[in-house]
Amino acid sequence: MERVNDNDQTGATRHGGTALVEALKAQGVERVFCIPGESYLAALDGFFESGIDLVVARHEGGAAMMADAHGKLTGKAGVAFVTRGPGATNAASGIHVAMQDSTPMVLFVGQVARDQRDREAFQEVDYRAMFAPLAKWVAEIEVTERIPEYVSHAFHVAQSGRPGPVVLALPEDMLSAACKAAVAPAATMVRSEPSEAALDDIVAALAGAERPLVIVGGGGWSAEAAKAVADFAEKWDLPVGTSFRCQDYIDNRSPQYVGDVGIGINPALADMVKNADVILALGPRLGEMTTSGYTLFSVPDPEQTLIHVHLDPSEPGRVYRPDIAVAASPAATVIALAGRPAPDAKPWAALRADAHAAMVEWRKPQATPGDVKMEQIVAHLSDVLPDDAIITNGAGNYAAWLHRYYWHRSYRTQLAPTSGSMGYGLPAAVAAKLAHPEREVICLAGDGCFQMSATEFGTACDYGANVVVIVSNNGVYGTIRMHQEKNYPGRPSGTGMRNPDFAAWARSYGAFGETVTRHEDFPAALERARKAGGPALIELKTDPAAISPRTKA
């Protein structure tokens, strides 16, 4: 069959910025997040009349986190552009999030002209050295004619295997030079499907178990795979836990769901993990968060029979020696498993039922100090928001209430960094609302977390991203204060902060802003925010003594 390249631009002379944007369009890119910079003026010119939606953020870290959130939501590489030097260093936090979260992403960074390299020119950085431990691949395009080649490779690397971020540096003189390079077609993804032999081994191990547990998580998933998780678990009557911040991989109302295997794990679920005889880990890395600081499994040889399915063949065995290791897409694996017949005998059925009941009991709101109780706030959100509402958050103890009391009902309704990066929630919410304007998007943030990226509220206002931001204002860095009270009780240091009037700050943008001082007033405030017709912010005056669902200051 003759291969046709509809994007063939051979013979058309244009500058590198236009060639770069053409390459992005060939990859199906429809939206790019950026902070403009003089180091990539030619690319900015290429975006003019390109049809690509160029979203200008307020900070490079915000732009990079928006690209990460876009990658999470779509399964395709999110794209960000930042300028050289400080722009790149500011964006590094988003690259770290994408790497630890296995999110496909491509970051383009401006660079000094080629004839100025190695002189410590203005804002010069060696990006290969800087980003090497943070990204899957880092390169610098030295020849304008090779732009399509580099972009093609970048999208292959970012989206294949274990997804992750790629960084491409763009010397400004390279970008402004003329070229005639042909545009490369869209990347072809590597298929990483499990073998029949691997599936046979997994099925045999599970069928012979008495106390099995499935843990799902990691990158490379899809709505189809999430449905397959539910089908497979229901057919086999298996208990399913989710790794840290992957709670939306199965409907939490399912009788098969037993809770999140992450920070603040239900003690009953922790015991279930420890006492399981077979663990099927579909996608998670089994890192510190999912293993409660590497305590749920013995290092390096777990007492449980461990079946570890991961996209990256170097991941199984990194910490824990698996009994069965499968280098394949967890999504493809669970889809295949859902088609396999289940055994007649399911000796674990009662265990699964008890574990689900324990999860339901664990999620009943437990009272914490103060007139605004986060357990009531989150429970109300869970009750009134539609099943497809997207909930975003960054890092901080306020998120513990969200993890414990919010019931996710459909795939990709949770956007949060497994890397524990503060400031993620608001940029992610903006990206989510731009990608899905028809869905409700709610950002939960602590006062410290929110102020890491608060300026992106202006981006939401600029682009009509009508998100609702809920800020828990207790005047402390709660996570650190919690650890202080545990390790150095009565000696808080460096964890207090003076905050602005967040609601008035939102109103200064012409947006909706309201302060809630009693949780009984929250439902009405939320309804007003949801109907505001623009970005909205609700400030919750929470008690600093309520620093976690289980700990009092």
Considering the chains and any ligands shown, give keywords for the structure.
single chain; 553 residues; alpha/beta; Rossmann fold; 6-stranded parallel beta sheet; 20 helices; 36% helix; disordered N terminus
Assembly state of the chains shown? single chain
* Overall number of structural domains: 3
How many angstroms does the end-to-end distance come to? 70 Å
Low-confidence stretches: 1-9
Q: How large is the count of helical segments?
A: 20
Number of strands: 20
The CATH homologous superfamily of the largest domain: Thiamin diphosphate (ThDP)-binding fold, Pyr/PP domains
Which structural category fits the helices and strands?
Answer: alpha/beta
Largest sheet: 6 strands, parallel
Mean pLDDT: 94
Helix content: 25-40%
Tertiary shape: globular
CATH classification, class level of the largest domain: Alpha Beta
CATH topology of the largest domain: Rossmann fold
CATH architecture of the largest domain: 3-Layer(aba) Sandwich
Q: Going across the major beta sheet, what is the strand order?
A: 3-2-4-5-7-6
3D architecture notes:
- The protein has 553 residues and is an alpha/beta fold.
- 36% of the residues lie in helices and 17% in strands.
- It has helices spanning 16-26, 41-47, 60-74, 86-101, 127-131, 147-159, 172-176, 196-207, 223-236, 267-275, 330-338, 349-362, 374-384, 398-405, 425-435, 447-451, 456-463, 478-487, 502-507, 522-530, and strands spanning 14-15, 31-34, 53-56, 78-82, 105-111, 137-140, 165-171, 178-179, 212-216, 240-243, 257-261, 278-282, 305-310, 324-327, 390-393, 414-415, 441-446, 468-473, 512-516, 536-541.
- It has a six-stranded parallel beta sheet with strand order 3-2-4-5-7-6, sandwiched between helices. Strands 11-10-9-12-13-14 form a six-stranded parallel beta sheet, sandwiched between helices. Strands 16-15-17-18-20-19 form a six-stranded parallel beta sheet, with helices on both faces.
